[in-house]
Design a protein that fits this description.
Layout: H1 8-25, H2 29-41, H3 43-64, H4 71-94, H5 98-118, H6 130-143, H7 152-157, H8 162-186, H9 192-216, H10 221-244
Helix pairs in contact: 1-2, 1-9, 2-3, 3-8, 3-9, 4-6, 4-8, 5-10
């Protein structure tokens, strides 16, 4: 285990950068962090470490944007997401997610293309629609952690921007990651190695969020939406490459 300590600076840098970017865009943390961890530890160790990191990152995003969170959206989303998160995470522990990862990559790239065709996010996205959205997303994130960017068009369509977008999405992700941790614990995936590296990255996830909040205050709405789309493209390409592997 100690041989991995030589690579701690790389992991810390990846965690800090991922947290900073995701605190600005609301997603993208796993696009940067997960591939680094998979290369270092393998998927079954990397995923629980990312889950611990997401708990810290999303909790810090909630804290710094707490006054802007759309609680009704969170309530509906959580009601749909938690049961399916448990099911999806259990499925992850018993089967490889390559095919679904490839499909998700194609979906993300298509979603960016559709958003560009319409120029603006879809409007009139009712709060109750977060229930089925949460169910679908909960299942998908249970078996493949890096799917946060899938939510971007829906939360933008609901009218959330900047701090409201980041904080609301952060609270939803926080609830989901707690459910995933519970499943990982029950399936004996939270080994000492996972806990050590998860704890190592937590303070840098929080620091990245604090720095990202300062960046977010200086980003225009137009640039904000472009940043989200860039994250979606990167996530889509990442999924396709991982699925093909």
């Amino acid at each position: 285990m100690f041989e991995y300590l030589l690579d701690a600076p790389l992991l810390i840098t990846a965690a800090l950068l991922a947290s900073l970017i995701s605190s600005v865009t609301g997603g993208g943390l796993t696009v940067i962090l997960l591939p680094v961890l998979v290369l270092q530890f393998g998927i079954h160790v990397a995923m629980p470490i990312v889950t611990i990191s997401l708990v810290a990152a999303s909790a810090s995003r909630v804290a710094v944007n707490r006054h802007e969170i759309a609680l009704s959206a969170v309530a509906w989303f959580t009601l749909g997401s938690l049961p399916l998160t448990v099911a999806g995470t259990y499925l992850f522990t018993i089967s490889p997610p390559e095919v679904l990862t490839r499909l998700l990559g194609g979906f993300l790239l298509a979603a960016v293309a559709l958003r560009r065709m319409h120029a603006k996010p879809p409007s009139g996205f009712a709060t109750a629609w977060f229930l089925p959205l949460g169910a679908v997303f909960g299942f998908l994130t249970g078996i493949s952690a890096a799917v946060g960017a899938v939510l971007a068009p829906f939360f933008l369509g609901y009218g959330l921007r900047k701090g409201a977008y980041v904080g609301t999405l952060g609270l939803n992700i926080f609830m989901i990651q707690l459910a995933k941790l519970a499943v990982f614990e029950s399936r004996n995936f939270l080994q000492p190695q996972v806990l050590v590296y998860g704890a190592l990255l937590v303070p840098f996830m929080i620091l990245g969020t604090m720095l990202g909040k300062k960046v977010l205050e200086r980003v225009s709405e137009k640039i904000f939406v472009i940043l989200i789309e860039v994250v979606m493209i990167l996530a889509g390409l990442n999924f396709l490459l991982r699925g093909a592997g």
